[in-house]
């Protein structure tokens, strides 16, 4: 019997009360056609209702791929477990899923992405759940928020502290999906899946295995169908024995707002000269200063924000290839991309499945991570996951907690406060108007990263801003460098909403950072 179905026929296989896992990262690999058909079925029939959905990384975005918003009708989803969520500008209407969450119509959890993949693997193997220290002393810890995003979730905890083998751990239950929605490029008639046009595989295999082993079904959206026996076995990333239904979607996007970029999928390699370089401004100063923290031969994780420009700094400085970039979606090497294409890389050396990449991160197997911050508090803790006033501006934590849990060295970057107007003149930073919102605060709104735990574990933590560099020391959060032209008291200490220590050997940041020419970076 043929496995090929229309999207609407596939949607008809999802029962009321089902647990549905979706393999996606914003627009990357999002099975949007199937999600759309599910939403249309609900509008027509009022079914399926009361779904639990699982999203290790966000399904959809606010820029043309609705993803989970297709199924965010009142009564359709009653529980959602997400590593991250669709996010976008504060002046835009919040995604429908955020509206459901904020209205307490959906019990919502923000579970670190790597842990969600771990929970699926435990379900696939019929094991009782995940024991981990990832997330301890952060919002994922039940002693703080236990991953709950609203009161509906707080009423049904998803994580608990347990004692095992003489130590304290976090326990997350196994996830056993009834349906896995995954996406690939090509399926043969037997359901074997290849990913030749894609920028990652994410957790396609793990998600399919979890649904299949738990008695569920696997629905694969693909661009095209090939004859059985025509796919090369080494190219098959999910075997047909796990796939129940194939849905063709010839016009599926490769990633957010991108029909197809062959450099993302490794089909061609772009010349380094084709990558745009950052304009000379305070953001570039920060990216340059972050780059100075790197060393030759390192494997370096990179996140959204200022850090995303660091690979372009290395290109400009003739240092491309001096470090190997590794990102949670799975690309290793190459040049991580910006904006809509963030999460993808051009010219990658390899594509690793996200669950394997997260195992690498969770154990601290890499050398350094470059990440952003929304807030830093007096203990060095960081909030990157929640803005209470406009929650949909942030996607939640994603893989941030997995990455920072045991990282040897972390460099956070961001503006010292919000809203300041600045420029660079004659090699100095000039602040024309101060920001009105402090980002160095007594206590962060949400603990995405625990400063005290970092001190206890001996992690090396640096915070780079446009006007100063701070380090987390056992004695406290300490200013170690200031930008040329900056007054320590007026522009730094008085602008923080919590007292800061000042290093005895306070330095001025490297003057080369503030000149609009290559700075002679040596790693």
Written description of the protein model:
- By secondary structure, the protein is α/β, with parallel strands linked by helices.
- It folds into 2 domains: 4-248, Glutaconate Coenzyme A-transferase; 282-307 and 365-514, Glutaconate Coenzyme A-transferase (3-Layer(aba) Sandwich), CATH 3.40.1080.
- Helices cover 18% and strands 26% of the residues.
- The protein contains 12 helices and 34 strands.
- The strands form 9 sheets. The chain has an 8-stranded parallel sheet with strand order 1-15-12-9-2-3-4-5, with helices on both faces. Strands 17-16-22-25-31-32-33-34 form an 8-stranded mixed sheet.
- Helix 8 (310-316) links the parallel strand 16 (299-302) and strand 17 (324-326).
- It is globular.
- The model has no long low-confidence stretch (mean pLDDT 96).
- It comes from Paracoccus alcaliphilus.
- This is Acetate CoA-transferase YdiF.
- Its EC number is 2.8.3.8.
- It catalyses: an acyl-CoA + acetate = a carboxylate + acetyl-CoA.
In short:
With 523 residues, the chain is of the alpha/beta class. 18% of the residues lie in helices and 26% in strands.
């Amino acid at each position: 019997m043929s496995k090929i179905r229309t999207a609407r026929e596939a949607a008809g296989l999802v029962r009321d009360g089902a647990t549905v896992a979706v393999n996606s990262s914003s627009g990357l690999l999002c099975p949007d056609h199937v999600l759309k058909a599910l939403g249309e079925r609900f509008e027509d029939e009022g079914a399926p209702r009361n779904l639990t959905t699982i999203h290790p990384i966000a399904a959809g975005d606010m820029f043309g791929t609705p993803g989970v918003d297709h199924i965010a009708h009142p009564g359709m989803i009653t529980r959602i477990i997400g590593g991250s969520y669709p996010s976008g500008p504060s002046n835009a209407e919040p995604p429908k899923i955020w509206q459901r969450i904020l209205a307490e119509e959906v019990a919502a959890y923000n579970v670190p992405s790597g842990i969600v993949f771990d929970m699926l693997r435990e379900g696939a193997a019929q094991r009782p759940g995940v024991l981990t220290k990832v997330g301890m002393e952060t919002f994922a810890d039940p002693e703080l928020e236990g991953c709950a995003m609203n009161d509906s979730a707080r009423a049904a905890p998803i994580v608990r502290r347990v004692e095992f083998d003489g130590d304290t751990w976090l326990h997350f239950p196994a996830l056993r999906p009834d349906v896995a929605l995954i996406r690939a490029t090509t399926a043969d008639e037997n359901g074997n899946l290849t990913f030749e046009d894609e920028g990652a595989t994410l957790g396609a295999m793990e998600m399919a295995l979890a649904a299949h082993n738990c008695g569920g079904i696997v629905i694969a959206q693909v661009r095209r169908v090939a004859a059985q026996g025509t796919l090369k076995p080494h190219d098959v990333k999910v075997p047909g024995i796990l796939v129940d239904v194939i849905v063709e979607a010839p016009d599926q996007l490769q990633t957010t707002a991108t029909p197809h970029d062959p450099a993302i999928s490794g089909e061609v390699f772009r010349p380094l000269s084709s990558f745009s370089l950052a304009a000379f401004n305070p953001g570039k100063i920060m990216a340059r200063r972050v780059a100075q923290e790197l060393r030759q031969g390192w494997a370096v994780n990179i996140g959204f924000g200022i850090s995303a420009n660091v690979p372009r700094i290395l290109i400009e400085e003739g240092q491309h290839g001096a470090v190997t970039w590794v990102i949670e979606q799975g690309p290793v090497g190459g040049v991580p991309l910006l904006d809509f294409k963030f999460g993808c890389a051009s010219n990658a050396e390899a594509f690793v499945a996200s669950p394997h990449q997260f195992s690498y991160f969770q154990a601290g197997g890499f050398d350094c991570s470059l990440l952003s911050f929304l807030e830093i508090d007096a203990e060095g803790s960081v909030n990157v996951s929640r803005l209470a006033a406009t929650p949909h501006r942030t996607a939640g934590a994603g893989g941030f907690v997995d990455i920072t849990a045991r990282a040897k060295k972390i460099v956070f970057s961001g503006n010292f406060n919000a809203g300041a107007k600045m420029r660079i003149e004659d090699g100095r930073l000039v602040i024309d108007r101060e920001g009105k919102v402090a980002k160095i605060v007594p206590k962060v709104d949400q603990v995405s990263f625990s400063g005290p735990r970092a001190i206890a574990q001996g992690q090396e933590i640096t915070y780079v801003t446009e006007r100063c560099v701070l380090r987390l020391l056992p004695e406290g959060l300490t200013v170690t460098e200031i930008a040329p032209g900056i007054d320590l008291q007026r522009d730094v200490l008085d602008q923080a909403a919590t007292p800061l220590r000042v290093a005895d050997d306070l330095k001025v940041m490297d003057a080369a950072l503030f000149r609009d020419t290559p700075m002679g970076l040596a790693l």
